[in-house]
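Entry 14. Ran structure prediction on the chain below.
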Amino acid sequence: MNFGSVRRPTGTVRCRYCSTSLVATPGERAIQCMQCNGVTRIRRNHRIPQPMPMAPPRYFPHSRGNKRAVLIGISYAGKRRGYNQLDGPINDVKFMRHLLCQRFGFPGDCIMMLSDDQRDPFKLPTKDNIRMAMQWLVQGCCYGDSLVFHFSGMGAQVCDDDGDEVDGYDEAICPMDSFEKGPILDDEINEVMVRPLVHGVKLHAIVDACHSATVLDLPFLCRIPRPGTCHWEDHRPLSGTCKGTSGGQATLISGYSDGKSNTSMTPDSYASVGAMTHSFIKAVECEPHGVTYGRLLTAMKAIMLNSGGNCNLQGPIGGMPIRKIANFSGVQEPTLSSSEMFDIYRKPFVM
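Output, structure tokens:
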């Protein structure tokens, strides 16, 4: 994809790359072009004021247990001109739900699933629904809460316009209506899901998408030059903008990728799962008595290198064998970022 920024009168934006005239949705920070797939930044001083937020739909779970999760899978069926739909995201959320319930004791009625195979409009992963789901996840969080956010789909990069990114780019996730309303930028994800986390609350995000290594905009990124070692990079913006929590802990497990898709084609008689999601679930399942963050990342990397496109997950997909891995995000190895630095080889991974 191509990315850039451009100044235009309020209400319309011209695609930086193909000059198509695009209608800017009120309050959005970027817009994606259906003609060329390019993402164009909307300058801060040209944004249309955001309308009053909508009330959460009745579908949203009323249960407020101390274990809650939002799981999002998007295939973009019929949405991307010139591209096939993604294989894997719909199954990814089903397997993640199975893992959370069976392994970590998450109540089923405290897990919200958004996927583009749903008929209920409130269960579709639109930009508005994803925003409200993120708010629902952290709203009223308190000491002892364990929260999970999982996204499987497309990611994007957009030129940074406020100087808070080390590499000069904002990362983003693409909802199913990204071509109409644009992606959700890491600045917004950080503001909505990270900053409200109070002391004693932990959030784990697992993101299976390209350009997702720092999509929560967390202040510290962990590098593992070789097994048994780690190096934390300080990604706090020089501007002093706060990207941390209100005392809680946020951790992102995602993947490094160069944005080039490496999708495994699968026969119709088989179903597939995403490479990042698959490696995460297998690494957890292979350690029935628990695992540290360091061991988890090491196991995930080994699974990615050795799976060769074959999958033997057991789980919730009835009547269809899961035998293939679809690396739609082009992930080459797992990455870890966090709101705080810690010893990844000593700290247990617990959801």
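Residues 89-104 form the longest helix (16 residues). Will compare against last week's run tomorrow.
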